[in-house]
TrEMBL record, chain A:
Taxonomic path: Bacteria, Bacillati, Bacillota, Bacilli, Bacillales
Protein name in UniProt: ABC transporter substrate-binding protein
Source organism: Paenibacillus amylolyticus
This protein's record includes keyword Transport: yes
Domain of life (superkingdom): Bacteria
Record family assignment: Belongs to the bacterial solute-binding protein 5 family.
Length: 533, 314
């Protein structure tokens, strides 16, 4: 091969690399200039031209691949869509797109849809539109179909009558859930499904301008919003699953509201007086599940002893750095249906007495034993999403060791799957949102009824069945709260679980944000009242 | 030539088949239940009968062989199935994410070249002297840093402390800088080492000495003669890393909320979204195999002896 051709090839090759590097370098430089200009102008906007453009950046932890309102919470959170009913500050159900509602019998509900509301595409909101929206949701989401249990709907002007498949007094609680968002099916038909799921049309104060799956949504104000024009012009709603990056974005002032900060990073945030952190009571409960088939913990006295050995105060202070509350039942004590009694404090003496009454004696090594067998328990630890979860078993393990009980910790990714398949365990960490819709019914029905989705250990509590039956037949909220509390009393007596803590949600808020505070339900994030200084 | 291409295609299909079968079996062996995700069980009660119904609808109750057969049948008809979580076609989901991954890959390659070529040349030219030590120290540090840590460090320095660049997200070239450096930096050490030893080898060859003797400037000798000879082994590795990069760098994309294939599959794995994982693995396979074919082709471009069938022994 001639050297002329060879050198020509090499020239082409190196030339290509050089051009590539130069192009990227130059574009990087020009973008840098452009960007510094734009960041300069945005800070000017903040100080001098606030009335012209007001914008905000929010970061949440859960990435989204779609904006399909019936398959994700994000469109409601971002203020694009709304539901028929909503939760108020006290977690009580209140009207929203429906002005009021009544029940005709235990399966039939009539909702009055608020007059004078338009979707963002200009079509009016009437009962027919709501019906079409539910029909679309049921067809598109198996979860929604299973949750709503709708048999038929009749639309008449602003009146929508819904009949459920079975008696369903808790039906209104389902209608506050973000995936029951009301959307304009007319807009979807016009835009096509794919385009609609990238920029859905609802009744909310903000409209989607662009969406990058897994990364961010850009929103602009809907000037025709029915409940008063929003204070902000633009909102950028981002997602990032990494708590460190979210915190750094908050500290660098690149985001104004950031969800789910980790407690250990709070000290550095508190040092900046432009930033604040709101610690909100959550609807989640961390707890231990006891194996009903275990020879040791099937004894009520052993469970009670272990419950007394959980140092809830230490877990709240040392692991959660104060951002949690000790749990005294499945539901947060501050909720209307929460348990009013105090929580179990660390009581080693009480635990020792109980173990002795259960026939356990301390051996020469200081360890409890019965019939020559030491009291050794296997604890299945959840390595899951919350960083504090794997630490809780360690605190309990050390308290138990001091009392003379050996706890072996086995970490698994999905405890539900493990404990459904195995019998060789005694305790397991669990963590659930126990009242996501301002009602405890769904948790009680799935955690204490055999076959329920939160009941992989098949726990059954004596005397609970008639109470749950009554709860499932009651629609009145006050009455439901009362029955829920009764159920919790029965459960706490049987002690199938040890409730540990309700972790708080930590939300970083820049001081320039006004008229906004995070709620326990984490539903209503972008609102029409949200504003910046 | 035709026969060669034909056998290559058969090879490609076999590799992809094996890959998809292995992924399918591993996914089924791993714990976790997609039905609970589909029914969004973490948000509320789900009855056993609802679960059974969904399992039946999706064919998850069928024997494994049949499930795989059905998936394969779909693939032959160019249908990769739908995401369990949001009903979107897997192909569309991946095509939404591909451009972001391609731009991140290009960024990472530029960073890789900018770091490794000069450092390798310095190392080879000043063998045993301080530039060489510096380049080797750099390679050692680069090889020991985990990408998530480097990413966080860069965010801390350039986004938080200096506030020059965005912490996360996508949109313009500024967003691309930190993730590209993270990816490129972590990959660079391997290339520095390979390129440096290749250069050293080439510089000791007869033709280089002859070129020097002819009075050709040193940089010309390195750039035109030695570097080209040193590139061959580098290109082989490059083919593999290109495939891996295009498949999405899971950690970096997740850290920077970069909307590429890596962050997509990360999410799919946590949700046990089988069709998306399967589709991703298939696409990854295609990328890697294609990258390798391109590498083979580039050999002949760089080394005419291969093209003329005179063997590849350099």
């Amino acid at each position: 091969m001639s050297s002329g051709i060879r050198s020509q090839h090499s020239k082409v090759f190196f030339g290509f690399i050089l051009i590539l590097c130069a192009a990227i370098f130059l574009s990087g430089c020009s973008q840098n200039n452009g960007a510094s200009r734009s960041s300069g102008s945005s800070s000017e906007e903040n100080t001098s031209a606030t009335s012209v453009s007001k914008d905000i950046t929010i970061i949440h932890s859960l990435p989204n691949d779609t904006l399909d309102p019936h398959n994700t919470w994000i469109t409601l959170r971002a203020g694009v869509t709304e539901t028929l009913l909503r939760l108020d500050e006290n977690m009580k159900i209140s009207p929203w797109l429906a002005s009021d509602w009544e029940t005709k019998d235990d399966r039939t509900w009539v909702f009055s849809i608020r007059e004078g509301i338009q979707f963002q595409d200009g079509t009016p909101l009437d009962a027919q539109a709501v019906k079409a929206s539910f029909e679309r949701g049921i067809a598109d989401s198996k979860a929604l179909a299973a949750a709503l249990k709708i048999a038929s709907m009749e639309a008449n002007g602003q009146q929508l009558q819904i009949t459920t498949i079975e008696p369903y007094p808790a039906f209104p609680t389902e209608l506050v859930h973000p995936t029951t968002s009301i959307i304009s099916v007319a807009a979807e038909n016009q835009m096509g499904k794919e385009a609609f799921n990238n920029a859905p049309v609802g009744t909310g104060p903000f409209k989607v301008t662009s969406f990058t799956p897994g990364s961010e949504i850009h929103l602009v104000r809907n000037d025709d919003y029915w409940d008063g024009k929003a204070k902000l012009n633009e909102v950028t709603f981002k997602f990032n699953a990494d708590a460190n990056v979210r915190t750094l974005a908050f500290q660098s002032k690149q985001a104004d509201i950031v969800f789910h900060l980790s407690p250990e990073m709070l000290t550095s945030i508190e040092a900046d007086n432009e930033l604040s952190v709101s610690s909100v009571t959550s609807l989640r409960t961390h707890y231990f599940t006891y194996n009903p088939a275990s020879s040791s913990v099937s004894d009520h006295r052993v469970r009670e002893a272990l419950d007394k050995l959980i140092d809830r105060d230490s877990i709240v202070q040392d692991i959660m750095l104060g951002h949690a509350s000790p749990a005294n039942g499945p539901f947060n004590a501050s909720l209307p249906f929460g348990n009013r009694e105090g929580y179990q404090k660390l009581d080693e003496a009480g635990a020792l007495r109980l173990l002795e009454s259960a026939g356990y004696t301390k051996g020469s090594d200081g360890k409890f034993q019965k019939d020559g067998k030491p009291l050794t328990l296997k604890l299945i630890a959840f390595t899951g999403v919350n960083p504090e979860l794997p630490l809780i078993p360690q605190v309990v393990q050390s308290e138990a060791a001091k009392a003379g009980i050996t706890i072996e910790i086995v970490s698994v990714e999905y405890p539900e799957v493990y404990i459904a398949d195995h019998t060789d365990w005694d305790m397991s960490t669990s963590s659930y949102l126990t009242s996501p819709r301002g009602d405890g019914g769904s948790f009680l029905n799935s955690a204490y009824v055999p076959g329920g989705s939160y009941n992989p250990a098949n726990i059954q509590v004596d005397g609970l069945e008639p109470i749950l039956k009554e709860l499932n037949e009651t629609g009145d909220t006050e009455k439901r709260n009362e029955i829920t509390q009764q159920a919790v009393t029965v459960i706490n007596k049987a002690l199938p679980h040890s409730y540990i803590i309700n972790p708080n949600i930590l939300v970083g808020i820049n001081q320039r944000v006004t008229d906004w505070k995070p709620g326990a339900e984490e539903f209503y994030i972008v609102t029409h009242t949200l504003d910046v200084k | 030539m035709v026969r060669q291409s034909f056998s290559r295609i058969i090879q490609l299909i076999l590799v992809l088949l094996m890959l998809s079968l292995a992924t399918f079996l591993l996914m089924k062996l791993a714990p976790g239940d997609p039905v609970l995700t589909i029914l969004k069980a973490n948000e509320g009660a789900v009855s056993q009968s609802d679960q059974e119904q969904v399992r039946e609808q999706l064919g998850l109750n069928l024997p494994l062989v049949q499930q795989y057969g059905l998936w394969l049948q779909g693939v032959i008809q160019l249908d990769l199935g739908k995401s369990f979580v949001n009903n979107r076609a897997v192909w569309d989901l991946m095509m939404d994410r591909l451009p972001a991954t391609v731009s991140l890959t290009s960024g990472a390659i530029v960073v890789l070249l900018l770091i490794s070529v000069p450092l390798a040349i310095l190392g080879a030219k000043y063998k045993g002297k301080w530039p060489d030590h510096l380049s080797r120290l750099f390679a050692l540090i680069g090889a020991s840093i985990p990408s998530f840590w480097l990413g966080l460090l860069l965010i801390y320095a350039f986004a938080f402390k200096l506030n020059w660049l965005p912490t996360m997200g996508s949109g313009n070239v500024r967003h691309l800088i930190l993730p590209s450096i993270t990816l490129g930096f972590v990959m660079a050490p391997e290339y520095i080492r390979l390129l440096r030893s290749g250069l050293l080898d080439a510089l000791s060859q007869e033709y280089v000495r002859a070129a020097r003797a002819r009075g050709i400037a040193e940089w010309r000798v390195i750039a035109r003669h030695a570097l080209r000879a040193a590139l061959l082994p580098v290109i082989t590795i490059f083919g593999m890393s290109l495939g891996a990069l295009l498949a999405g760098s899971v950690v970096t994309e997740t850290l920077f909320a970069w909307p590429g294939l890596g962050s997509m599959v990360m999410e799919a794995i946590t949700q046990r979204n089988y069709p998306v994982i399967q589709g991703y693995v298939l696409l990854t396979g295609v990328f890697i195999v294609t990258a390798n074919v391109l590498v083979d082709l580039s050999y002949s471009l760089l080394d005419p002896r291969i093209r003329s069938g005179r063997g590849r022994n350099v």
